[in-house]
Amino acid sequence: MADLPTGTVTFLFTDIEGSTALWEHHPEAMQIALARHDKILEAAIDGHGGVIVSRMGDGMAAAFASAREAVAAAVAIQQGLVEETWPELLGRVSARVGVHTGEGILIEGQYLNQPLNRCARLMAIGHGGQVLVSGTSEPLVRGALPEGVELVDLGDRRLRDLSEPIRVFQVEHPDLMTAFPPLRSLDSFPGNLPLQVSSFIGRERDLARATEALAERRVVTLTGVGGVGKTRLALQVAAELLPRFREGAWLVELQAVRDPEGVEGAFAAVFGVSPRAGQSLKEAVVEFLHTKQLLLVLDNCEHLLEAVAAFVGMLERTCPGLVVLATSREGLALDGERVVPVPSLAAPSPEAGLDALAQSEAVQLFVERGRDADPDFALTAHNAVAVAQVCRRLDGVPLAIELAAARIRAMNPDELARGLERRFETLAGGRRGAVQRHQTLRAAIDWSYDLLSEAERRLLARLAVFAGGCTRAAAQAVCSGEPIAAREVFDLIVSLVDRSLVIAERDHPETRYRLLETIREYAEERLAEAGETASLRDRHAEFYVEYVRSLSEEMQGPQQIEAGNRVRSEAENLLLAINHSIDADDADLAMRFVHNTPGPGTETGYTFLLPIDSVLGLSGAADHALYPAALGLSAAWAAMRGDLATAQMRSEQALAAAQHLGSDPDQRVAYLLAMTNVAVAYALGDHVAAAQYSEQAAEIVQSTGLLGSAALALGGAATFRAMAGDQPTAVRLATEGLSRARQVGMPLAIAMNLNALAAALAEDDPERAKGLLREGSQLRMTFGYEAQNDVTQAVFVTARVGDWPQLLELAPISIRHLHWTHARPQLAGVLNVVARALVSTAVEVAAVLQGAASRLARLAMGIPGPSSASITTDAATTPIGGGERSDSGLIVELRRTTTDLLIETLGKTRLRDLRAQGEAMDDDSVVAFAIDAIAKAQAAMPQ
What we know:
Strand content: 5-15%
Shape: globular
CATH architecture of the largest domain: 2-Layer Sandwich
Helix content: 55-70%
Mean pLDDT: 85
Structural class: alpha/beta
Radius of gyration: 30 Å
Low-confidence stretches: 423-439, 875-885
CATH class of the largest domain: Alpha Beta
């Protein structure tokens, strides 16, 4: 092997696409093909100054001192594979290639894993024939690309190492393919897997064991002591398996749930599920998940073992497409469950040489985390023995190793080893087993804790009151108090971050400070010992009551998107605060919390679900001054999810409650009841009434100074007037709403009024309407938000003006949101307009979508069985009433036009057969089919 480059190194990874199946079916032909493949790769790499680092079965890894030469080698590889003649049984052998630049640090002739793993992850999201270049490599080749090479920006993408997104570019060359399916990055799949602040090291065997277990069983539990890395392993397994699940992978974090009865609520909160009238929350969750094909990651189950086991057991029986991966200190004890113990990382023996030490997972973890603390730290012949000793003394427990490695700035490995040895002699003894390993971890935490000042110890204990971390302001407000002054809190947090007892997460709107779960449990014990648990929980809840009020105010102006993102970041703390008020039967605290939360219609992609029914049932709630407003909010949410009976009941109760309290409904109650009436009127197809109620709502909030909500209400009124055919009034209202929205700078209100004005102008001035819609789309892209009502409204207006490329950009967002909220009437409508957009380029797909839309519309209207409507008649396919200018009128018109084109192209018999295929699909299959069809249509469009 030639000398490996160091410093700034560009790595190249390759892999043959579909090689497993090729080896299985054509082993002899593959043996011949692999020899030719290797020859092509070796020539390309060597010819551009690269060095082969490793051979990985059907691929290679290489290192280059020059990023330009690495890109040139990648192009040469693809050219060689295209020009080669392959065995007939195999067809064309194609490989995917990833190019990434990082710091090349050698230990005993081998690179540290992080940049290599990053390059491998980049390659893995590509397709055969594709070359992907990372954002760290692109600046190094910009302006010096090999002849004929261009780089196409594919945007920021999340790789399966769960770290922060990276910029990805595709290499284009006249000799190479340019059209590929969507990248297999995490953001291409549904789910909520969180970013990770540290790299995933080793665990290949544990990944394989967990993956194999999930292929054989539908419930798998990762067990082990605290700090052993169960959560990180579970998230990595989920990221690896994500493409297997149509609806992706979803994390249900149970850390903030203290009451077993809250388990169902944690599931509901993740998926945004609310029960219908007469339906329990458990039944609503089961109904939602019944047809889904997804992976659930349940984290931190040990304190709710019986409740989690009972609920998971029921889901296993009723949801055939559901697979569960849990983490717990012990198994769930379910029939068919596979328990996979998570061991400590392998630590080297005392006799191991330097080369063997460098390959140890425990040592690799120590070295990488040590370099995070001190960039100059490296494993050398001088310190390797001490590092190995530290890893052995800590039994390879990742958390303990990370805590020790963080001290590298203050002491060398020899001092670390001596300090740990003395501490273990004091705190650990007897037979070494699983319990003893837990004691060893506690000893490591005790050791770090003992090194803290009294103020640092008290702050660490108080930070345990937060769920999911906190901001600097939250920590100062909740955790200050004797002996900690508010001005001292941040400096103390910085000190705890330096000691790896607190993690600083900088990928949020505000940096968040979080305790690892094992540290949090330890800190909770210290908080209880200090007798501060009850008082801190009260302060925590009071802080978030005021915090959510300030967010509601910010959501009325230019900071709306940032405020919405903070709601998402603080979801666990908000849930903890409202649950504390319920658990304490504190009606005043709960009512103030409900009253302060953002009102309906202001969400920008995330809906915070409040347990309003539980709040309404608290002692003394009915006599509280805010009780009518809570009833009004319950009515508004019920109407928006289509539960008209509950909405009307809660509206009547709100009016009665106000009368009982001896007053007329205040402005908030009046506004909420007006919004309830809007949703009910729209659901019944009375667009004139919906417009009148929207105008009433606008007048109410205008008088309270909530100009953003007033602008939203005016946009709604304009949309309903346009649907009712009153275009002049619609233009006037939308113009006024847009003016007010721009005045307060509220992005969602601006977008909604742009949509409304476009709807009003669609027939008389379609070009201006298109421009307004494009302005709204640019606004969404600029601010990076997705609001269901906004996007779905834009889809229908875009269809009205016939801007099919723009419609195909918007439709997948709307389809996903409508599917998750079970809004079948609107989903049926969107599928019909997508069929119209695709009829000229994907005629059979359009026919299938028509059949699927018919089924959804019948289900929404409660009509069982297959469609009986004739093709020529083609009756309306949405239960929402209205005239020709309404959404339903537009959908009927477009469906008839599409049907005429389909009959002309396919004939009635073939059209009927294809529609039947669509009608036979379930909701999940329809959504996957539609989104895939849209992606293929967009890929085929001229650039």
